[in-house]
Every structure is written in structure tokens, then in C-alpha cells.
Amino acid sequence: MTTHVHTPLRHPLVFRTLEVQRVETLTPHMRRVVFGGDELRGFVSAAPDDHVKLFFPNSRGEIVRPAIGPDGPIHAPGVDYSPMRDYTPRRHDAGANELTIDFVLHGDGPAASWAAQAAPGQTIGAGGPRGSMLVADDFDTYAMFGDETALPAIGRWLEQLPAGKRAVAFVEIPDDADRQTLASRADTTIHWLPRGGADAATGTHLEQALAAWTLPAGETFCWIAAESGRARRLRQALEGRGVAKDCLKATGYWKAT
Predict the structure, then answer these.
(1) CB 166 within 8 A of CB 187
(2) Contact 151, 225 (CB under 8 A)
(3) Residues 252, 215: Cα–Cα separation, whole Å
(4) What b/e sequence results for 200-225 when a residue is b if at least 16 CB atoms lie within 10 Å of its CB, and e otherwise?
(5) Is 15 inside any structural domain?
(6) Among candidate residues 131, 156, 183, the one where a domain is terminated
(7) pTM of the prediction?
(8) What is the rounded distance in angstroms from the CA atom of residue 170 to the CA atom of residue 93?
(9) pLDDT tens sequence across 37-82
(10) Which residue range is the domain that position 155 belongs to?
(11) How far apart are CA 33 and CA 35, in angstroms?
């Protein structure tokens, strides 16, 4: 078996103010926001599953970020800090100076609520990415398992894969109308798994699809992103089938409360 070498990269931590350039409704549960602004220049995102921390307006409509100390963020008592969430850079176009973020519209959380009303000219804060993990490019097949929160990373990964590679994606989505058109030069198969409106935290479509899936011939890298508990169980299922650590990455993109 080949020893695959993944490359970690560290980036300087930079905080930016981003300005909304345009918005687009992709599906009933996904809204795309394209950001720009002078402070976006120099932005770097090297891997499909990078994340940036976005800072949304506080109760007074202000962007208030914590100070960063040697041990992490410093929150002073009594300060109305901005709500913050991690998001995947769906696309970065340095030439156009644009950053695209796709927001899942689910409930009334600070990020989803902001994205639902986002309009050109509005601003938010952003920090990072602080690092990237470049997955080895010598696998024959790249297999991806994720819910709707993983779609931005899956879409970006498929777009970046070259011809000659194989890719298979299992994507659990709220409803059939949430399918997206995802382009790739790789030989790609996408399995859409609509939940029919059921809760993403307790869904089982990904687990059932994995149980029925046969690992393809050759070397396969498996990537998982979903609710934390489900991501852990999916990883354990693949480990139980003999998938090695350097051929597997699983991340909890959110946690059920």
C-alpha cells in the first residue's frame, strides 16, 4: 500500500471586514453570498475544507471581535461581542477580489438569520483561515460523505479534482429540491440523499449509504463532515472496514443541542 503524505500549511491570522457584493438563492435551504472589499486582498485558502470564522452584527448592529492573546481569544466582561460561526470558503477569486460563502438556512441562528436578509453593501467580520491541510493527490478515488453543511467543501473539492481521478459523493440534503449542480473534471458520481425534511442530527441516510457502499479498487481517500456524533460514527464504520488513518478524515461541522 502507498504511504500517502498530506501537507499541513499555516497562515498568518488576519481579521478582515468583508462587504457583501451580491447574493443568490441556490436552493430552498442554501443562500450564496459573495463578498469583496479592499481588506480581502491577500486572502489565502489552500484546501477545499478550510474554514473562516465569520463575525456577525451584535444586538446593536456592530461587529465587535475579541482581542487575541497568547492563549486564544480574550473576552472582556460586559462586552456585547459579535456572534461567530465557522464557514467554508466555497470559492476565492483573487483576480476579481471575491470570496463566496454558501450559508445553510436552518432555523433562526445568528448566521442563518443574517444570511437570509443579506444584501449588497452590508458588512461582516472574518478571521482566517489559520491553516490548511492539503490531502495527498496520489489517491485513485476520493469519497465524500456529508450533510448539507458539507456541500460547500464537497462542491469545491469536486471542482478542483483533475481529470483522471475518480470521485464519489454521498450528500444528505433536507429535500429533493436542495440538489445542486456540481461540476468536476474527475469521473464523478453523486448520490443525493433527501431526508424529506427530517432532522439532520438524527438522519440515517449517510449511514445506510456507507453500509451499502463497496470500496472501489485502488487507493481511496474518505472524507466525512456532518453533525459531530454522526461524523464520529461514520469514521468508526470506515475504520471497522480497514480504512487506514492516512486515508480518512472526519470532522464534526456542527453539534446537535
Answers:
(1) yes
(2) no
(3) 23
(4) beebebbbebbeebeeeeeebbbbbb
(5) yes
(6) 131
(7) 0.95
(8) 27
(9) 999 999 999 999 999 999 999 999 999 998 888 877 888 899 999 9
(10) 135-254
(11) 6
